[in-house]
Specification:
heterodimer; A: 148 residues; alpha/beta; Mannitol-specific EII, Chain A; 5 helices; globular; B: 97 residues; Rossmann fold
Chain lengths: 148, 97
């Protein structure tokens, strides 16, 4: 298993353009809706979470992991992965600007543990992260993750 | 270090499903690394007072720690959830109390 197995058609976006962090989160959230994992309300909850708690979801240099509480707006555990054409400021003192966004949805606290385990492996691989940020197509992203 | 099953650790951050889960996973690896026994669970910031009741130590990211009001001593603040050596060092220091 790799993270690629959790990224079906439509869940990877490369070279997205977002004017600010809200737009970036909304794009990654829209993709969660498009693959049938969430309702639009979940996207708004992710944005509200960041407004409330700050940019703590920017957990590594250039990497943001927006997510919100499990709720009825989540149909299944899923992620979407998005690279940004231009880096976006999230307000993180340590890890701005963001170039790679993984939006996460979970219907309960445990359904997504496999995804998180795969994601942790990716986040510990600086070379892979740099390669993902530079990827030009979803196929390239999937191939990099499948090799990892 | 406490006996039996070891430290009861609760990893706390915002929603309890993202950062807190990464912190939990890395804390489990850190325990193995330092040869300590412990049980790690993840919790959301909103449930931190319940978590504090059952935990020997709360592991909290620096960003989330700023939003907590808890007595010092039972809280270990982690600057980088992905930094295994930071987590290992701080858990070792805590266990040595």
């Amino acid at each position: 298993m790799s993270l690629a197995d959790h990224l079906p058609e439509g869940s990877i976006i490369t070279g997205a353009r977002a004017a600010d962090w809200r737009a970036a989160v909304r794009l990654a959230g829209d993709a969660l809706v498009a693959i049938g994992a969430t309702e639009p309300a979940y996207t708004e909850a992710m944005i509200e979470g960041i407004e409330e708690l700050g940019p703590y979801i920017v957990i590594a240099p250039g990497f943001a992991l927006p997510h919100a509480r499990p709720s009825e707006a989540v149909h299944r555990a899923a992620i979407t992965l998005m690279t940004l054409a231009e880096p976006v400021e999230f307000g993180s003192a340590d890890n701005d600007p963001v170039r790679l966004v993984v939006a996460l949805a979970a219907p309960n606290p445990t359904a997504h543990v496999t995804i998180m385990s795969e994601l942790a492996g990716v986040l510990h691989d600086d070379d892979l992260l740099a390669a993902l940020i530079a990827a030009e197509t979803p196929e390239q992203v999937r191939a990099m993750l499948a090799r990892a | 270090m406490t006996g039996g099953a070891g430290m009861r650790i609760v990893a706390v951050c915002g929603m309890g499903i993202g950062t807190a889960v990464l912190l939990k996973m890395n804390a489990e690896k850190a325990l193995t690394q330092i040869g300590a026994l412990g049980v790690v669970t993840a919790a959301a910031l909103g449930t931190v007072h319940d978590a504090a009741q059952v935990a020997d130590v709360l592991l909290v990211t620096a960003d989330c720690a700023d939003r907590l009001q808890l007595p010092p001593g039972a809280v270990v603040v982690i600057d980088d959830v992905l930094d295994l050596s930071e987590i290992s060092d701080k858990l070792t220091a805590f266990a040595g109390h």
